[in-house]
């Protein structure tokens, strides 16, 4: 995390970026993080998060959710919802260490009154890797 903060500091021409770690597997920790951010920052320009890894064994969190759901979906959603007023002019950047590893390729189409006229949004050749080139 220190290296990322250093890069942000350099890109921000010396402005000191805030950085906080939190356990997104516990929704009480997510709410505490939101309270801390709301009491510390009048405006949030960028909220960057990295999705957690899938649980290696099936288990439940203290909140009763499946252990992969809370840190990767519920926690980030709850945090962005709690901070939505401060993020109005900002950006949310979510990343993952292994994007699309288990995803199935699907061609999305633009919405149109005439579906046959809607070109695909995604033109990757069938069978191409989702997390590669």
For this entry, give a set of tags:
133 residues, two-stranded parallel ribbon, 3 helices, globular, disordered C terminus
Itemize the secondary structure elements and their pairings.
Blueprint: H1 2-11, H2 27-40, E1 46-50, H3 69-82, E2 91-95
Parallel strand pairs: 1-2
Helix pairs in contact: 2-3
Describe this structure in words.
The protein is α+β, with helices and mostly antiparallel strands. It has a domain at 22-98: Rossmann fold (3-Layer(aba) Sandwich). 29% of the residues lie in helices and 8% in strands. It is built from three helices and two strands; from the N terminus they run ααβαβ. The chain has helices spanning 2-11, 27-40, 69-82; strands at residues 46-50, 91-95. A two-stranded parallel sheet has the order 1-2. The protein is globular and about 45 Å long. 9% of the residues are buried. The model is unreliable at 121-133 (pLDDT under 50).
